[in-house]
Known about the structure:
The chain is mainly alpha-helical. The protein has 15 helices and two strands. α5 crosses α7. The longest helix has 32 residues.
Amino acid sequence: MHNARPLNFSGVLINAAALVLVLSYALPYLYLLMTSLKPAADVQQIPPSFFPAVLSFENFREVLRSSTLPKAFFNSLTVAVLTTALSLVVAVPAAYVATQYRRRITTLFLLFALVTRMVPSVSLGVPLFQLLKSLGLLDTVPGLVLAHTSAAVPLALLLMSAFFEGVPRELEEAARMDGCTRFQAFWKIILPVMTGGIAVTALFTFITSWNEFLYALLLTSEATKTAPIVIAEYNSVYGLAWGAMTAAAVLYSLPVIVVTLALQKQIVGGLTFGAVKG
Length: 278
């Protein structure tokens, strides 16, 4: 038989604050989902209702029948996957060298990465446009991947640097004493330890590219138009297509949810990596 615990006011307060925080994120998405399931005639009714009177998949059928949105989804997925892969290839070894072999130049390197994250994307849009135009990469997938990677690498570098800070140097030294080269120690010993950190960095990099809007607006026209641009076009001079826009937004959120659930175990391990180090 369990003894009843006395009411812990601080515990109740923390749980209430956590509930408010969760609801503040969940309610807008639930309203988006409910709106996407309403018939077109009910979407803009006044006063608005939270739940649909009748469940309807009319909005989803409309956006999936369009010729532009499926192609835009494919473009977004291609660009996000390639950007994530390229960013990790650049940032993971760079972050390891910068944190494990600290020199003044590596500290300046990390500081420079931090500063580049502070520069607004709108300030870099015009130079990127001119650069990609001169290279013949305007309105192409490689061009957009390079633009997204330029924004994602500093973020990935800073995240991986924080994770590598928790790796004891004795790991590499032990591997070197066993006969490994420096690269073999990094590849066979350090990287398997960093699976969680790499998963967290990959997720944030993927989301950064997946949600990017400004570069896609400036650097693409028709061939490589991404999903955020197509979703924004539902608000046109002819009016705002709420039903189609909400259905497209729900579909657009699904890949991020799937990737997060698929990497859930690694993400939890990565987020607690620093906590269990001591």
